[in-house]
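Annotators were shown the component list below and the corresponding predicted structure, then asked to write short factual statements about the assembly.
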Amino acid sequence: MAAPTSIQDPRRPEAWVWVYFATVGIVVALMMVFGLVMRLGQAGLIELPLTWFYQLMTMHGVGMVGISGVGGAAILYHFLSQHVELSRKIFIANFVLFLIGAVLLLGPSLLGSYAGAWTFLYPLPQNSGGQWAPSAAAIHLTGLALVGVGFLLFHLDNARAILARYGSLGNALGWPQLFGNSSEEPPPASVVAGTMVLIVNILGLVSGASIIVLSIVGILNPSFEIDALLAKNMIYMFGHVFINATIYMSVTAVYELLPLYTGRPWKVNKVFLAAWNISTIFVVIVYPHHLLMDFAQPTWLHVLGQVISYGSGFPVLVVTAFGALTLIHRSGIRWTAASGFLVLSMFGWSAGVIPAVVDGTIAANQVMHNTQWVPGHFHFYLVLGLVSMFFGFALHYSRGTGDSAADRVALWTYAIAGLGFTCAFLAAGAQSVPRRWAIHLEEWHGIALVGSVFGALVVVATLLLVVRIAVRARSVA
Amino acid sequence: MTIQATATLISFAGIALMVGIFLFVLARSGDEAAYDTVQPRAYSLRKQLFFILLAGFFIVPALTLRHLPYSPDGVESTVVDVTAHQWRWEISQTDFTAGESVLFRVGSADVNHGFAIYDDTNRVLAQVQAMPGYVNEIAFKFDDPGTYRIMCLEYCGLVHHGMLAALSVTDARETL
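Structure shown to annotators:
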């Protein structure tokens, strides 16, 4: 295949995919503004009321995690439905449950001072020290449960459709090609990714739903006590898997779209299948790396957390990032803002794993845990990796008349400012600046100011892109 | 070199390397070549990378898992009880001498907190979670005299950032 002179993609997203993405655009932009306000507060440039910092933090966290799932689900639905018969009703139901859940999630923070953070670590939601009423926590957690139920339905429907087409999850993960001598074509990349995600996310969502229900019972009946360490395990199992799954869903955009811009096929081979199968197991069992400073846990779990951290994301990451670079290298790739964002997403994911793995090392975690090193590494993944996948997808399908200089300026602004923004977090973490502090010591203001400047540029670039995509998507749709 | 400095050096060097790799590929992307000449070389490189990562998968844990912070090292220590509250620290002893080994027994009276020991330059030296229903033991030796700060490193509500305490460590010769 030669480098393409024009991009032909007849797979137009259906209207509901655009509805999902309209929501993604609005929520991501709004939550970025919340994040910027927090950073400005940490830099000492604005004075936020204490309660509001932590309320914004809670809304920012839960809003970004939730909307990351929404964007990932939209992308996966679009590409997976090219290969299997998905239910549009379930897709709509997931969205409706998300909207109802979002109201219940954000309402208690906006109206009831709820600020339990998106991690809702037991027993903080029911034991706020007087900041919010237990009922606010119960409403928030009910919203979280509704969002979880929506995603559970979505993944169960994916499972139904995949089983109907491929007969078993093993077949959809390419086991006949991986372990046998099947000469049949392996399943497409989107089917493999969708299968992996439904396995890990159903497990994660069940864990999350269980601890959410237990927490609500604890709020309604304070004499009902939960083991705090068990609760923490269940929460991090759910949280880690869910946020990772957003990337695994969204990366299908890279598999399906990058070949159009390079004129080179993305081949699903044994290496690709092996990587996704290994990551299916590792992503589920890696979450103990969030609990390395919980000394009461058995030491073998800490060791597992570190060792699996080194293997968890690497198989899929190496195969994907290396595959993407191989596709691009000397391809004559057609550079647009869409292909630029898809490539940026590969950089964000590849580079973001480095500080993550460092923090997953017990010796480093002892001094890095819960410093701003942590938001540094996950913002690397999410700002430069995941949101870039969203932009790549949305720009590709809303191109209409093509790129403009404004798109390219926005792309480069977003890339450079995003790198500066995340590196400012990492640098602050290296200085031992704690995460989730409303008020910083004066000597920490400088690095927060640097982060704020880059953060503001990220917000400007995002707003510009969201508006341009919205205008063009309307004409395309 | 501190752990923070080592972690930062490794991470930023890695990120810079990734920037370099991506910029190199981007710069060469317009110099078209047939895919069947590019792919074999890339796959060969990927195989080498795989073996490097596989080696790292075993070597790095072997190097970094030798000294775990979880078990007290058997050294006779001063035992100090720490209870975290929203939003204050209750510490049974706050004055120590340089060179003294201390075993902090850390718990919580309400929600999760993080017991982090900072030096006088505001750098984290060690930390452990404080959790209701559990006592986490962390051994720490105060090498140098000075004022050490305790900060909370687990979000615990409205005054999380204000959960501070100080430990005073004097030169052993001054206490004679």
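Statements collected:
1. The first strand of chain B starts at residue 78 and ends at 85.
2. The CA atoms of residues 68 and 169 of chain B lie 25 Å apart.
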